[in-house]
Design goal:
The chain contains one helix and nine strands; from the N terminus they run H-E-E-E-E-E-E-E-E-E. The chain is an alpha+beta fold.
């Protein structure tokens, strides 16, 4: 064989394996730092109940921070809702449903890398009908002719 044929030098192999090992360590370090890097967003988790602490399903929950479109969620059968991947800051949250008065919380803070929890309570909406004053005997004024009606 000729001296110009393939020769394997131990130094070449050492450099090759050392390069592969170094590359592996760098990639491992990057992967580890990405896995432990704190998230830049937060979340808001909560539940909506009535005054007797019974969960309320199908309640509309609206979250806004004055920037961009409000985000909406509907409570599940356990009265729970969630908003994920929120920019850190203060939010206004409102909950409402048929037969219930609106409930609103201002300045709910969501922190970077944190989950904020919130318990909201809705009261029954009371509708008051005003037919005018009640006169003695239960009669009300009749606006059509100015007389009392039973």
């Amino acid at each position: 064989m000729d001296e110009t044929t393939i020769t394997t030098e131990p130094a070449t192999f050492r450099r090759y394996y050392l390069g592969v090992l170094l590359l592996g360590l760098v990639l491992f370090g990057i992967a580890r730092s990405v896995a432990t890097y704190p998230t830049e967003t937060g979340s808001l988790l909560g539940a909506v109940t009535d005054v007797d602490n019974r969960p309320l399903a199908d309640i509309e929950v609206v979250l806004s921070n004055g920037r961009g479109e409000p985000r909406r969620a509907t409570t599940d059968d356990l009265g729970k809702f969630s908003f994920l991947n929120l920019d850190p800051g203060n939010y206004t949250i409102e909950a409402y449903g048929q037969g219930y008065a609106r409930s609103r919380y201002d300045s709910v803070h969501v922190g970077k890398g944190r989950s904020t929890t919130l318990q909201m309570q809705l009261r029954f909406a009371v509708k008051v009908r005003d037919d005018g004053p009640i006169r003695p005997g239960g009669a009300r004024p009749d606006p059509d002719n100015g007389t009392d009606r039973p």
